[in-house]
Batch of 2 targets.
Target 1
Amino acid sequence: MLDTLKARIYQGKQFIKDIENAPMREQFRGFPVLKKGIDTSVCEGICPTGALNLNPLSIDMGKCTFCGACERACKAIDLTNGYKLASTSREKLIVTPETTYEDYLKSAVEVKKEIVKMFGKSLKLRQVSAGGCNGCEMELNACSNVNFDMGRFGIDFVASPRHADGIVITGPISENMAYALEDCYKSVPAPKLVILCGACAISGGVFQDSEHINREFLDKYPIDLYIPGCPVHPLTFINAILSYIKDKK
Ligand code: SF4
Ligand code: SF4
């Protein structure tokens, strides 16, 4: 008993106290800041997912794997360590030289009163890995560890869709997972949320041209939240959910 207490005192509090303002390491590749007037022709054909458009200059965070190739090649592109990347609008994920991180944070997530009222205190999510590489899935696991401790905000992953308020999709939705995904969605009681997590889920990512994916689900059902990344960092995920279900006003 004494040894346990000693260990607890020695370890201290391991969770990140202020998760909404948690520092991120400098090397993290996050929100892109684009500069006008610099020759970007060196980036021609460099982007593996077609996220980078050179004329006019823009980066689609829904397609971006944050690989850093364009940043290394060209001074017009700076992948900052801004990790709050989520949006309720697919269009807003497209960043142009006019988009500042401050403006993006203010407008990217549209907070709806009914969502805050319904899910603000408790949100249970079922995760569906629909053909991903396991990168996003591992980071989602990390959201519940002692460090990020997502459960303290009432947000948890649950084992059954029948106990869930929504689904979190990772992966590009492979043909083999298309039926299972829809089945899972139908098993979640209404009202329910659909959250796309990672470049694969949002756009197909590096698998977008594969003939073995089937993304019809996304045309059939409304999407509530898009969370970019490859993989999605736990701070990105937790802050995305908090920004959607908590009204800060
Ligand atoms: S960081 Fe994103 S936009 Fe740049 S090359 Fe990689 S995937 Fe393309
Ligand atoms: S977005 Fe990237 S990390 Fe996530 S499943 Fe796809 S390839 Fe893996």
Target 2
Amino acid sequence: MKNNNDLTIVGGGLAGVEAAWMARKCGVSVTLFEMKPVKFSPAHKLEGLAELVCSNSLKSTSIENASGLLKEEMRLMGSLIIEAAEATRLPAGGALAVDREGFSAYITEKLEGVGVEILRQEILTIPEARPLIIASGPLTSEPLAEAIKELVGSESLSFYDAISPVVSKESIDFDIAFMGSRYDKGGKDYINCPMNEAEYKGFVEALISADKAAARDFEDIPLFEGCMPVEAMAARGIDTLAFGPLRPVGFKDPRTGNRPYAIVQLRRDNTADTLYNMVGFQTRLTQGEQRRVFSMIPAMKNLEFARFGSIHRNSYIDSPRLLTDGLELKAHAGVFFAGQITGVEGYVESAASGIFAGLNAANTLKGLPTVSPPEGTMMGALTAYITDTERKGFQPMNANFGLLGATKKTRLKFIERAISQVEGFNIKPLKS
Ligand SMILES: Cc1cc2nc3c(=O)[nH]c(=O)nc-3n(C[C@H](O)[C@H](O)[C@H](O)COP(=O)(O)OP(=O)(O)OC[C@H]3O[C@@H](n4cnc5c(N)ncnc54)[C@H](O)[C@@H]3O)c2cc1C
């Protein structure tokens, strides 16, 4: 693990390369450790850095789309990922699809060109050098994952996610849904979506027969009761959900004064009160099927997803407890995390967090305080989400307008604010 440079980065994926690029721009010398091609994760195949392991699309380019806005913010911050994507772009309508190998080669050459020392080596223990950025991704190799566990505590590193969809509050039909808690205990924190017997049974039948996303061979995930996919629970018997997460006891439907046959509960997911989490709906259904089947719940027929449900291999730390909003470990100064391992979800989101980890590592070397992205930006909203100390049962999150507190009506105003905040963000002294 020999390294004479200022900054050490572990992992040359989307986040690690962006962190290295930003740090170099700040005049910091960088050593980047990447285990490929000495060792490949079960999903990585290319020798180059910043490998897109699945889809070759970085999603929409429109800034009226959450991922599009995030990319525009990153472009304004001088992102290498966005530069490489534009240089290797393939025709794909409104999506930013890239030539996977060209994209990876472009980034690898660019980093070599600015003098980043790239060492092909698997890191087995936490390097002693500071500052240090750990950006080893959702498939962090086992010895390093063990070392991270030792550093942050074994309960603070998860190896799988079991994610329920998060939906926008404004897409719920409140002529049908109502706020309240079971037996009126605990205030009006939940949105309750009632179903009668026929609606419930039709829904359960559709759920059982819906298409599931194929699990990859390394995703043989032990499914405990707490993270059982909703469709697997439904398949145990027609009324299993009605006696489980959809049980209606303690509720009266204000429209009828009677107890509904079943209730889907949505729990508030952000302070701005724009996002709600479908309780107990962790799922392996494909995104198209989640849209089709969950829209059968009467109050959810116009459902808008901020995050789809999923269950997959994913190493991520309990960022709300562990990280400052500068992505530095509260308990270990100089150790930063970036990428999917912080609990952001997606290629672009991972890369965005790398920009700030790189910037902050450079700041500490210059004796400057760490910074977090402006709060009105998509980068800022994501950072605030993953480092919100009030958050319990943390699950990964992708970019979406609900995080900004924006509704369909106010979206344009929020987009303008985000762009102007990035343009006004003062990193200029560091660019020299
Ligand atoms: C199978 C799979 C498919 C996915 N598909 C998509 C998708 O289609 N779209 C999307 O937006 N997101 C997708 N994601 C989610 C996620 O956005 C990507 O995984 C993204 O690449 C994360 O960026 P990262 O930099 O955090 O990690 P990675 O890009 O995975 O980079 C981490 C790097 O660290 C290296 N590394 C790991 N351990 C060590 C070690 N001990 N020493 C040295 N190097 C190490 C790895 O080889 C890798 O190059 C997928 C994730 C997985 C696992």
